[in-house]
Each structure stands twice: as structure tokens, then as C-alpha cells.
Amino acid sequence: MRIAVAGSIATDHLMSFEGRFAEQIIPDQIQQLSLSFLIDELDVRRGGVAANICFGMGGFGLAPVLVGAAGADFEDYRAWLDRHGVDTSAVYISELRHTARFICTTDRDQNQIASFYAGAMAEARNIELQAVAERVGGLDLVLIGADDPLAMVRHSEECRTRGIPFAADPSQQLARMEGPEVRTLIEGATFLFGNEYEKALAEQKTGWSDEDVLSRVGTRVTTLGAKGARIDREGEPALHVPAASVDHLVDPTGMGDAFRAGFLAAHSWGLSLERAAQVGNATAVHCLEADGPQEYTMTGASLLERVEKSYGSAAAAEVRPFV
Q: What is the pLDDT of residues 142-151, one digit of tens each?
């Protein structure tokens, strides 16, 4: 399958402050804040949901097409993704804005002060999927992830108009989107991804019940954290897939994106929904055991080992021919 992943491209600038924010704030001067923190650690991580998912899929040899907007400062990041099997030819480069950035400082009590600069992400609405499809010889599926909300809606409308199967994955942008936008994004999706909170929020925003949503999408995939994932289809019993076994927990950032990468890889191989969720869970655990959403290393052997350990030899035997 030729899969495109549309969504955010960003870098995370994570800083550590060894003091306490509370000790720097004078209560009766709170309306005139002027604070400066001496930072001890700076960790710059590559991120953005679309880039994270593509990184994971690239590890499976799928050559996913990254669809999103970035700035002229994207070149180093592009080279990294190219080296990891991602097709970055469809990335729109802004002439005016930098690539999106998340900047966060954490103090010794785990309090955080953060800012998000959307930057070039706002220009993702200028991307036409048809042009991308023509460039790569057609698309079998487009995952529409968290991005500029208008871009997300336009991508879903274009997929429906052109008959391109798509997966809706609004994640954190649900909080920004209004009911009509969420309904437009979801309607007709082959897959709808989300966690338990996002599932409830989508139903609240749309005014649709769980049954209403299932009547409008092909398959609803809900990640459940340590409980694994649930798969729902209209008229069929829910399928619960337990989480994969964990050796050591390091950092959960990017786990959901890694799950999607593994799930879509297995789907592209023609495996069942249960196997797809198992591969997704096993991929997510690789991410959980690394420090950063694109810092994990996964081999065919390590994936098969985790699948067999978590789900048995029969599951591993079905996955083996593809890795």
C-alpha cells in the first residue's frame, strides 16, 4: 500500500530548571512578571505527529509519504527522515515561517512552563492531496492527523471527493475544533483513531453517540494506554487487544504515533485487525522504552520477539513473513 500521513511537523525544545518556579514568583507582583531561568539541560527532539508516524512506518520499509508544512529550517530534519525511509517530497516549505516548535521548561517539582509556535503548520491548508497522489503514483490511504484544523477538514473533504480512503486521527486538535469540523473530518473515514478521552470528546463535540460514529466510519481504534487497544465495527462485538509486555519504562512521548505506525504497517500487509493492533502495541512499546518519539530502534527480530512474548507464537508466525 502507498500511505500518506498528513499532520504536524515540529521540534520539541525541552529544558530543565533545577530550581522551583514558585520560589521565583513574588505574589504581589504577579501582574508584572519578568522572569528568567538559568537552564541546566536542553534536549532538542524531532517530533510532530505526522513525522513521528512516518518515522515508525519507514522502519518497516513502507516509504510513507509525509504531508505537512515546514519552514526553510527543515533541511536537517528532512535529511534525518530521508535516511529513515520517509518520502519527504510532499512537504510544503513556507517562505515566511519557521517549522513549528514546542518549547517547555520543567522545574525540579515537575511544574512546566510551555509555549507552542505553530509557524509553518498554518500553511498546511495550501496542500492538495491530488498533487501528492499524482507525484507518487497514487495513494491507497491517507492518515489525517493533528495539524492546522482547516487543513485537516480540507484533506478529509478532498479524500471523499476523490475517493481516496482515509483515516481520521484528530487527537489533540479536538480541543480546538468545533462540532461541524469534527463531523466533517470523521464522516466516511476508513479508520478513526483516538484514545479514551478523545473518543468521549469527539462524541461530545459532534453530538453523535458511539453507535452514530460507528455507522459513519469503517473501524474505530481506541488506544487504552496500559490496557492495550479496542477495535469497534458496526454490528460486530468489540475486540480488545491487550498491551504488549514492557521491559523498562523510559518515556511515553510518541507512543500513540508509534502504535499507528505499527497498525498501518500490519494493515498494509493484509493482516487482520487483531494482528494490526498487536503489531501497533509492540511498536509502541519500543518507543516507550526509548527517550523520545524518534529515538527507538526496532529490528525485525526485536519486533517478532515482542509479539511472540506478548501474543504467542501463532501471532509471531503471521507477522514473520513481512519483517
A: 999 999 999 9
